């Protein structure tokens, strides 16, 4: 709609800045992956050592002159900085380099714009783009200081820039209203799942850690998965049956990245709430990545920002097929014996049963395992238990009563007993064989 992308393959020069504070320094390898994911044709990577950023250009004037010569020599159409630029820095650089300039936030926004498929995803991206670009509008209107006067040409007394900002504010308000409606619909669906006592499990992790591949392997789905950053934007939910536990809802969500722009976190809040409302988080980690500890810290930082840092978590160390001497296995807490980490390969489908086992253990702590003694008039409850797949064995005693060996979450048993018209706690206490 508002920001049209070129056909693709723009010749781009990448600028990476070294010497920054470690907390704000970016990874040049990840930067190149981002540029490739956006469809840029990288012609050069320029590394700049700068300990004190310049207010005018971020980098020094000498390096700006070098970049200008490089742009002309390589016929580059775009210069991308692996850093956040202020609106004035971006404008100054565009004037000096005589080409388009994009910062890290704008690059990530462009990737998101390409990946969004659903109506909700497109709205979220547009909102983040509008928020980001509203402070940069002056770039587009340097030739129009005032609307023309004269008969038939007098405007409402606004500059063109003020008119455009007013239209932007209206559009932003409209998108937020639509997203609020989407948010309420998601919350309504979550309430329905909670009433049905179906646990929600959400996949989270750094971008390109293999979440969608794992999701497809576990649920036999066809979610788009690729070896690129931010392949998944729109959340996908699937029902998954676990032996010993019953049904769960598994959600595949957007990946995180270092210094994920705050505007994106805000715009995608409705989507990220799938994680903040989950009963269990599966933190998918690229076990082959040398900087995986930094990636884990970044994911935890975003989870804290969306209020999901207190949700139980199971770490899934993926891509063990790229490591030597590592077999699929579950690591357990030494004191409690509960699963804390599972080593798998989603691509090779190695260790997937271990994930199911660990999830069932963590979600099934309040599991009912026992024998129910049902009289003949309780056929409806018997049918419900069989329908749920909770019956492990059926036999009959000398008085004609049905003895069912069942295993299912206590909350699910209470729900079935309620559907049969009884008070759960009293009924289970009276009809369980000791």
UniProtKB/TrEMBL annotation:
Q: Where does GTP bind?
A: 205-212, 230-234, 252-255, 318-321, 345-347
User: Any idea which positions bind Mg(2+)?
Assistant: 212, 232
Under InterPro entries, the record lists: EFG_III/V (IPR035647), G_HFLX_dom (IPR030394), GTP-bd (IPR006073), GTP-bd_M (IPR032305), GTPase_HflX (IPR016496), GTPase_HflX_N (IPR025121), GTPase_HflX_N_sf (IPR042108), P-loop_NTPase (IPR027417)
Q: List each copy of the Hflx-type G domain by range.
A: 199-367
Q: Give compartment(s).
A: Cytoplasm
Q: Which residues form a coiled coil?
A: 165-192
Q: Name one Pfam family in it.
A: GTP-bdg_N
Which SUPFAM superfamilies does the record match to this protein? EF-G C-terminal domain-like (SSF54980), P-loop containing nucleoside triphosphate hydrolases (SSF52540)
Q: Does the keyword Magnesium apply?
A: yes
Q: Where are the transmembrane segments?
A: none
Specify the domain of life of the species encoding this protein. Answer: Bacteria
Q: Which GO terms describe its molecular function?
A: GTP binding; GTPase activity; guanosine tetraphosphate binding; metal ion binding; ribosome binding
- Which GO cellular component terms, listed alphabetically, does the Swiss-Prot or TrEMBL entry include? cytoplasm
Q: Does the keyword Repeat apply?
A: no
Assigned keywords, A-Z = Coiled coil, Cytoplasm, GTP-binding, Magnesium, Metal-binding, Nucleotide-binding
Q: Which cofactor does it need?
A: Mg(2+)
Q: Which coarse location class describes where this protein primarily resides?
A: cytoplasm
Q: How does it assemble?
A: Monomer. Associates with the 50S ribosomal subunit.
Protein function: GTPase that associates with the 50S ribosomal subunit and may have a role during protein synthesis or ribosome biogenesis.
- Tell me which family the UniProt entry assigns to this protein: Belongs to the TRAFAC class OBG-HflX-like GTPase superfamily. HflX GTPase family.
Q: What is this protein called?
A: GTPase HflX
């Amino acid at each position: 709609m508002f920001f049209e992308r070129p056909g693709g393959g723009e010749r781009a020069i990448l600028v990476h800045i070294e010497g920054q504070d470690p907390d704000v320094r970016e990874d040049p390898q990840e930067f190149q992956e981002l540029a490739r994911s956006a469809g840029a044709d990288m012609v050069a990577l320029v590394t700049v050592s700068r300990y004190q950023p310049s207010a005018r250009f971020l980098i020094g004037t000498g390096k700006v002159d070098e970049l200008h010569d490089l742009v002309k020599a390589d016929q580059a159409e775009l210069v991308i900085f692996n850093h956040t630029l202020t609106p004035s820095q971006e404008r100054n650089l565009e004037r000096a380099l005589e080409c388009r300039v994009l910062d890290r936030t704008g690059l990530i926004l462009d990737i998101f714009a390409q990946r969004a498929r659903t109506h909700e995803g497109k709205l979220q991206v547009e909102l983040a783009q509008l928020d980001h670009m509203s402070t940069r509008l002056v770039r587009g209107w340097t030739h129009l200081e005032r609307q023309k006067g004269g008969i038939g040409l007098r405007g409402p007394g606004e500059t063109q820039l003020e008119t455009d900002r007013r239209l932007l504010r209206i559009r932003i308000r409209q998108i937020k209203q639509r997203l609020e409606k989407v948010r309420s619909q998601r919350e309504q669906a979550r309430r329905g799942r909670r009433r049905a006592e179906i646990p929600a499990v959400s996949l989270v992790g750094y971008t390109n850690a293999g979440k969608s591949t794992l999701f497809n392997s576990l649920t036999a789905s066809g979610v788009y998965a690729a070896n690129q950053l931010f392949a998944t934007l729109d959340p996908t939910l699937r029902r998954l049956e676990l032996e010993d536990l019953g049904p769960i809802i598994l959600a595949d969500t957007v990946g995180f990245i270092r210094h994920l722009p705050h505007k994106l976190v805000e715009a995608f809040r409705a989507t990220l709430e799938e994680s903040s409302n989950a009963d269990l988080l599966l933190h998918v980690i690229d076990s082959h990545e040398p900087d995986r500890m930094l990636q884990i810290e970044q994911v935890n930082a975003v989870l804290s920002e969306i209020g999901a840092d207190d949700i139980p978590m199971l770490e899934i160390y993926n891509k063990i097929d790229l490591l030597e001497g590592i077999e699929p296995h579950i690591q357990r807490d030494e004191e409690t014996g509960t699963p804390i980490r599972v080593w798998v390969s989603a691509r090779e489908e190695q260790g997937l049963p271990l994930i199911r086992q660990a999830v069932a253990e963590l979600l099934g702590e309040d599991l009912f395992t026992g024998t129910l003694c049902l009289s003949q008039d309780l056929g409806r409850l018997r049918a419900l238990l069989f329908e749920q797949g909770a019956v492990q064995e059926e036999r009959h005693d000398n008085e004609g009563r049905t003895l069912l060996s069942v295993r299912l979450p206590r909350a699910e048993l209470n729900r079935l007993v309620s559907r049969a018209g009884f008070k759960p706690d009293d009924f289970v206490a009276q009809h369980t064989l000791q």
